[in-house]
User: Fold this.
Amino acid sequence: MARPQPITLWRSILGELTRNLLLATAVLVTVIAFSATIKPLADGRLAPFEALKFLLLAIPPMLAYALPFAGCFASTLVYHRLSSDNEFVAAASGGISHRSLLVPAAFLGLILFGGMLALNAQIIPRFLVTMQTMITEDVAKLLATRINRGQSVELKKLIVFADRAQPIELEPGSEARTALVLARPTVIETDDAGNVVSEGSAGRATLWVFPEVSSADSGPSTRVAMRFEDFASKDVKTGLVTGKTLPVSITVPSSLSDDPKFLRSDELRDLRSHPERMSWIDVRRRRLADELALRRTLDDMTRSLEAAGSFTLLDAAGRQIVVRAASIKPGNNRTWNILPKNGGNVEIDLLRTEGAGLSRTGGVRHLARSVVLAPDTTEDRPDGQMALRLELRDVASSPLNEGTTSESTKRERLPLAGLLAPNDQLASLLKLGTLPLLIESAPAEKDGNIALRAGDLRNMLVYLNDEITSRQQERLAVAASCLVMMLTGAITALRFSKSLPLTVYLWSFFPALVCVITISGGQQFARSSGWIGLPLLWAGVAALALYTFWTYLIVRKH
Assistant:
């Protein structure tokens, strides 16, 4: 006949465990949330009332750190009291085994395991997004705080100092969210390597922050526009001093789009199929699309030259530019030389728009000794269009009026910028996701530039997939640690029933601390090194489980 289960004892232990768990969790999570609030409050990112709201928002994310230790602490206190009062001895005399007495701790540990999985999967990322938005969405306030404290502000390649920053009212109908006036700003411009290119100062500057925009291609971002008045700049290399009004428009990607920790579990899974959601992936995807579209445009030009001896481009007004030459050969630094026929001149006809069509009358013919073709990198090009640039050298220009003659105008150099290819494929390539674009570019990777862009994108995809895997495993390991730590505290209390409660807790606290450290360290190692970091991520949980099982074997013998 089966022995009846000690339901009443289980219920009593479970109730006491729950009360101690709630109390310990409340204390721990409040302390941890407060510590997370101190830095943004001290940096001026939060007002006192906002700090209270931020602290409340920080409570759910901080449960990931508080719950494992709170469960360990609660089970240690409850089981140590029951053991020191000889209640377990009485239970053993009645035929109730130690394994049966651990059922309430295991049951509550399973609840914590499921609860932590739900928190990490859906709730914690949402609160993290809200917290991050509170301290980053008001860009103008952050800039004003830093400037008024005498600190610099970095906006991509610009480092800005100013005497003070003061908010101003927006004009009626303005699309900007906020605006600032900077008094006597100083600007340092750097290159990609961080070297100083120029430095200048202005009488004042106006800064506008435009609302955050989001698209399927680029993700969330904030645009910051600045205009410096009475600006004087000195080039570091040449020493040349210029004075002009300097407009600046900078798009800053939102940090929320760049870190998978802000994503829910379903979004993390979807990120493998749509990695362009991360801006640092999307930038590389766009570079590859640019390079592939350029390669295809060059191939079209080459085929057109071979077949008809000319190719056609369009300027910003939609006028045709007909280029007659022999061939196109690669140059240096992503440039191509357009070679003339039989050592003569390259002919470029600019046809005038007339009504709904084009006319040679009123057009211009340029005869150039050499022509260099290059991508036009100006930032004001229409999105989804590839702009080209022709650099004409030793140019003779004359009207294209048929039946008339006139003197030609000679110039040493003539740039034609903002040119578009009629069969530009960039827009269609940009509609492709990252993975389809890599498949599309694979046949063209014999081109060194395309192979370089595609290789860089693949390397970032490997890094992103490792990041996704490490985040998923970290969330699972944290949930598992809640169950293991609950059992660790209970079994350790049974083993050291004659010791002080604090001594007993230390025997379970330090192994639990090692567990948490290895989870965090393993996640970072797995993010940078791939699957080889996963054993380290789980090593702490596994070691704590083995320690708990070893302690249980010792307790069971006695």
